[in-house]
């Protein structure tokens, strides 16, 4: 007659020997250690060694919040972009469907609420199953949570190579995991462990944690998961690759149904719910996450500017690595100044101006709010990635300094030559010395030789305009765009008509040439490299902007005039909140009042309004805002970089069109076709001007601006306007002005470009 012993538990078998060893184990920790010792190690010495090894293992585990998605928001709360190293959104257990909790426990750890971190019954069952030739694990949810916490910490520290996967674990790894699990159960409740596990576990390379997985596979929140959906996700935990429903639908279905069977077996669902769930086909609604500014829902380049604002700020970490970790793993909420009401029209306008040009001309718009410095719109006619709708793709941000954008760091845009948009600063210096806006200067003077006696109290003035001294370092004799302006004329008239000789005549009439430098510095002007390098205004050519300045810098500088003399540094980030909603940083308006005398700013405003009424920006193809506005056009020497910078009392905007990749030395803006329109030469009023006007006409009313305050009459003087030279015909209205562009009038046709000329 056969023995009554169960052959599986016979002490003569391997398992029997293990159980015999267990019989002499007196405490839970030693019991666990004994279970993990190989069957051959059953002597007293081996047992003692295992106990000592187990006791030496750490029992403390630091549980930190796993990496989460950081969200960048516009001023109205709408999302701009999400940033993450791991796509994860932490949710409390109450926001997870009970179906998900039941499915996970049923398939992964049915005795979860009965054990203290390590399930000895489960281990025995697994050993027996393995001896029978089946493969069965015995790790509890708590043990799995320990492994995930350890691995997540290693990844966060950049130690990916130290991560130990389940199949790679040795005896020591398992013992450590079990001891930490036991300790964890003493510190946290079952619900806290479940919540932590559900939020950290890996489902897919696009989905970490249950909320991200629910959104990725089904486009629903975790709290709305149905039984078959929850079962599918619970099945994924065992092998995210093997049971991936996108790539292995048959295996995923088989695993899902196994989970549903387990849910029925453990009383989590009824037979009717089981049968209905089994009959339900897998129905995915993939919602792939889009990480980074390149996939921003709006304002790609503003997003990148914001990202660099945070990454460059030591307030968010001592080192660049610390700051990057905080941004891409910290679950931050970054609130910004972007106004979608302006961003949409700005993007539409630059795309209309030059969105599909094969020659890769750049177009950009950036707006700031005078008096606060808030950057409310930032757009350009490119996209960061191929197949995003435009033929011109680049990571370069046309609107900001080199240090403030990803592509720019790689050698991209670092500002552009502002040309005659620099002239208002010479005029402001003129007014600051107590001179009148309508005083007559000698616009006929074209020669300023090398030994000209400039008055200066700081750096000596260098440079000259004199054909006779070209061999000695002088530039050719000064030129205007039109012949009729070489005559005496009022300073204000010279400014709104953008006459080069008038600008130099007013500079020559200053008591101190250094006053131009002081005005430029006060307005926050600096080189586009972004290293706080001041513009050097001591050379004569500097009056016509031969250096590179970013559009954001220009918009902020002109905002000084709009706000009657207050300079505000650009700001883009109002608040940064951590994962718990606590404010940990952000910018506040950084303004200095009266950097330019209020009356001087009013005087500049008084003249620059005439640019749009009767000067270089007055042509009918440039739409005008419905509120009072002032502006200045500008073009560099070879017509490759053109501007209109203008403002109301509520909004200051820099509009740029031209060679944006700083290859302007290799091509110029003459004899070119843009949007089907041929130009003998591009002028600031021709494309940048209509772009500015079309945009400002739509949005200026959103930032109400009243009338500009007039300067004192003593500053104006006695206006004596002179007749404008006879104009020839300008190009047809540029497409950049939009469908509401008024009929084009006659306009001056610029003469061939020469050094120092203006548009």
From TrEMBL:
The EC number(s) this enzyme carries:
2.4.-.-
Q: Does the keyword Repeat apply?
A: no
Alphabetic keyword roster: Carboxypeptidase, Glycosyltransferase, Hydrolase, Membrane, Multifunctional enzyme, Protease, Transferase, Transmembrane, Transmembrane helix
Transmembrane helix as UniProt keyword: yes
Residues passing through the membrane, by range: 18-41
Annotated Penicillin-binding protein transpeptidase domain residues: 519-649
Q: Which reaction does it catalyse?
A: Preferential cleavage: (Ac)2-L-Lys-D-Ala-|-D-Ala. Also transpeptidation of peptidyl-alanyl moieties that are N-acyl substituents of D-alanine; [GlcNAc-(1->4)-Mur2Ac(oyl-L-Ala-gamma-D-Glu-L-Lys-D-Ala-D-Ala)](n)-di-trans,octa-cis-undecaprenyl diphosphate + beta-D-GlcNAc-(1->4)-Mur2Ac(oyl-L-Ala-gamma-D-Glu-L-Lys-D-Ala-D-Ala)-di-trans,octa-cis-undecaprenyl diphosphate = [GlcNAc-(1->4)-Mur2Ac(oyl-L-Ala-gamma-D-Glu-L-Lys-D-Ala-D-Ala)](n+1)-di-trans,octa-cis-undecaprenyl diphosphate + di-trans,octa-cis-undecaprenyl diphosphate + H(+)
| Composition skew (Low complexity), residue ranges | 725-734
**Molecular function terms from GO:** glycosyltransferase activity
Q: Which domain of life is it from?
A: Bacteria
List the residue ranges of the region (Disordered): 706-759
Residue stretches making up the Glycosyl transferase family domain:
77-263
Short name of any one Pfam family annotated for the protein: Transpeptidase
Protein name in the entry: Transglycosylase domain-containing protein
Organism source for this protein? Answer: Sinomonas halotolerans
């Amino acid at each position: 007659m056969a023995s009554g012993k169960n052959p599986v538990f016979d002490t003569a078998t391997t398992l029997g020997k293990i159980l015999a060893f267990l019989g002499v184990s007196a405490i839970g920790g030693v019991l666990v250690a004994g279970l993990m010792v190989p069957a051959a190690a059953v002597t007293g010495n081996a047992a003692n060694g295992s106990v000592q090894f187990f006791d030496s293992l750490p029992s403390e585990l630091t549980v930190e919040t796993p990496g989460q998605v950081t969200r960048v928001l516009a001023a109205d709360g709408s999302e701009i972009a999400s940033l993450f190293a791991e796509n994860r959104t932490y949710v409390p257990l109450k926001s997870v469907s009970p179906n998900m909790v039941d499915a996970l426990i049923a398939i992964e750890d049915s005795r979860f609420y009965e054990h203290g971190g390590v399930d000895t019954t489960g281990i025995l069952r697994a050993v027996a199953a393995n001896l029978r030739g089946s493969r069965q694990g015995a790790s509890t949810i708590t043990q799995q949570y320990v492994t995930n916490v350890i691995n997540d910490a290693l990844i966060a520290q950049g130690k990916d190579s130290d991560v130990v996967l389940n199949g790679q674990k040795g005896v020591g790894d398992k013992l450590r995991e079990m001891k930490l699990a036991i300790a964890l159960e003493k510190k946290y409740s079952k619900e806290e462990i479940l919540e932590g596990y559900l939020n950290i576990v890996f489902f897919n390379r696009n989905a970490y944690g249950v909320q991200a997985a629910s959104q990725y596979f089904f486009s629903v929140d975790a709290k709305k998961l149905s039984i078959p959906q929850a079962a599918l996700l619970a099945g994924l935990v065992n092998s995210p690759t093997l049971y991936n429903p996108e790539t292995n639908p048959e295996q995923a279905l088989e695993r899902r149904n196994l989970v549903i069977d387990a849910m029925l077996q453990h009383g989590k669902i009824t037979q009717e719910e089981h049968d209905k769930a089994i009959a339900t086909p897998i129905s995915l609604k993939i919602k792939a996450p889009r990480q980074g500014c390149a996939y921003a829902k709006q304002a790609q380049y503003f997003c990148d500017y914001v990202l660099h604002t945070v990454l460059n700020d030591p307030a968010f970490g001592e080192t660049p690595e610390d700051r990057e970790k905080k941004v891409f793993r910290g679950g931050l909420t970054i609130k910004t100044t972007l106004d979608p009401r302006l961003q949409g029209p700005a993007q539409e306008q630059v795309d209309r101006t030059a969105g599909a040009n094969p020659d890769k001309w750049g177009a950009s718009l950036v707006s700031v709010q005078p008096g606060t410095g808030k950057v409310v719109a930032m757009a350009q006619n490119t996209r960061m990635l191929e197949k995003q709708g435009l033929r011109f793709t680049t990571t370069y941000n046309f609107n900001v300094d080199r240090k403030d954008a990803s592509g720019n760091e790689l050698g991209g845009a670092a500002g552009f030559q502002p040309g005659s948009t620099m002239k208002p600063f010479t005029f402001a210096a003129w007014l600051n010395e107590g001179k009148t806006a309508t005083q007559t200067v000698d616009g006929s003077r074209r020669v300023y030789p090398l030994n000209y006696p400039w008055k200066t109290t700081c750096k000596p003035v260098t440079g000259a305009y004199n054909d006779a001294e070209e061999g000695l370092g002088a530039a050719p004799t000064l030129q205007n765009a039109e012949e009729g302006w070489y005559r005496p004329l009022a300073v204000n008239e010279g400014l709104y008509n953008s006459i080069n000789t008038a600008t130099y005549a007013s500079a020559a009439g200053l008591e101190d040439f250094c006053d131009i430098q002081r005005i430029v510095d006060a307005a926050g002007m600096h080189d586009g490299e972004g290293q706080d390098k001041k513009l050097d205004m001591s050379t004569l050519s500097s009056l016509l902007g031969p250096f590179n300045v970013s559009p954001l810098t220009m918009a902020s500088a002109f905002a000084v005039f709009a706000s009657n003399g207050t300079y505000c540094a650009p700001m883009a980030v109002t608040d940064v909140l951590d994962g718990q909603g606590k404010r940990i940083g952000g910018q506040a308006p950084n303004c200095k009042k009266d950097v330019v005398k209020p009356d001087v700013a009013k005087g500049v405003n008084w003249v620059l309004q005439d640019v749009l009424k009767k000067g270089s920006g007055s042509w009918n193809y440039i739409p005008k805002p419905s509120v009072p506005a002032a502006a200045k056009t500008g073009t560099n020497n070879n017509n490759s970089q053109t501007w209109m910078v203008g403002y109301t009392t509520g909004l200051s905007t820099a509009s740029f069109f031209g060679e944006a990749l700083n290859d302007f030395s290799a091509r110029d803006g003459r004899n070119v076709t843009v949007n089907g329109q041929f130009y003998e030469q591009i002028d600031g009023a021709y494309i940048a001007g209509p772009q500015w006007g079309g945009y400002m006409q739509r949005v200026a009313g959103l930032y109400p601006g009243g009338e500009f305050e007039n300067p004192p009459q003593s500053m104006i003087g006695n206006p004596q306007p002179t007749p404008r030279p006879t104009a020839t015909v300008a190009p047809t209205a540029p497409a950049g002005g939009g469908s509401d562009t008024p009929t084009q009038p006659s306009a001056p046709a610029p003469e061939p470009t020469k050094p120092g000329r203006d548009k």
